[in-house]
Design a protein that fits this description.
AGP_Transferase, single chain, three-stranded antiparallel beta sheet, 18% strand, Aminoglycoside_PTrfase
Length: 248
């Protein structure tokens, strides 16, 4: 009998692993719909869909291991990070998916959400005011018009699997859609700034590194409250709060 392993679980969704099968349970059926369609359209290795019966999606495990984890040093080679950059570039060059994704949120709305979270972080004593103010200033560079591309939307390094220097699969596509290419790159390198050069080299296109750093601040500021409320620890070494501190 295979062991049942809880990969992640919170009030919105849960993922279980049983042998070589992942069972994803999501309260929002639209996210499952996006995940299945995005994996079918993405020009990069993705998991095989075994079956779906709402609210459960069963997918096969991909070979290899995750490129790394937030808060821990990555043991993957520079070539593996560059290969990931190349895969991300291939995704961003693909035809746009037919749904809006993150690009559907206007800049004014995003700025308002950011200001609201900054106010909450300071008012509730979660983070020092100077830390929040500095990162809000850094985040301003991300609040600019962008040309939408096919984005993964939640491209954490735990979602990219490698075998040696080869990308074997990219998982968790429920946030995929039209969005900012630099948001994907920033999410992928969050907490691993030392590998940014390898990723950019593989990506193959000049990018604005100030915007990448802006998205690091913006994503972290927006994420702290959600992480705390869903049982995660943004204060763990190398995680979101340390990312914010690195901008000081």
């Amino acid at each position: 009998m295979n062991e049942v392993k809880v990969v992640v679980a919170h009030s919105e969704r849960a993922t279980l692993r049983v042998g070589d099968v992942f069972l994803k349970v999501d309260a929002d059926q639209a996210r499952i719909d996006v995940e299945v369609e995005a994996m079918a359209l993405a020009p990069v290795p993705t998991p095989k869909v075994l079956w779906r019966k709402p609210p459960v999606l069963a997918i096969a495990a991909v070979p290899g291991t995750a490129l790394g984890r937030l808060g821990e040093p990555s043991t993957a080679s520079p070539a593996a990070w560059a290969a990931a950059g190349a895969a991300i570039g291939k995704l961003h060059d693909a035809p746009l998916p037919p749904w809006p994704g993150r690009a559907g949120q206007g800049l004014d709305e995003l700025a308002a959400d950011l200001d609201g979270e900054c106010e909450w972080l300071v008012a509730n004593g979660v983070l020092p005011a100077d830390l929040v103010t500095r990162n809000r200033q850094v985040a301003e560079a991300a609040l600019r018009p962008w040309t939408p591309v096919f984005t993964h939307g939640d491209l954490q390094i735990t979602h990219v699997f490698v075998d040696g220097d080869e990308i074997t699969g990219i998982i968790d596509w429920s946030e995929a859609g039209q969005g900012d290419a630099l948001y994907d790159l920033a999410t992928f390198t969050l907490g691993h700034e030392e590998h940014l050069g390898d990723v950019v080299a593989g990506y193959g296109t000049d990018i604005d590194l100030d915007v990448i750093r802006a998205w690091w601040s913006l994503r972290s500021l927006l994420g702290v409250r959600w992480l705390v409320e869903h049982g995660f620890d943004p204060f763990a070494p190398g995680c979101e709060v340390d990312v914010l501190r690195s901008r000081m």
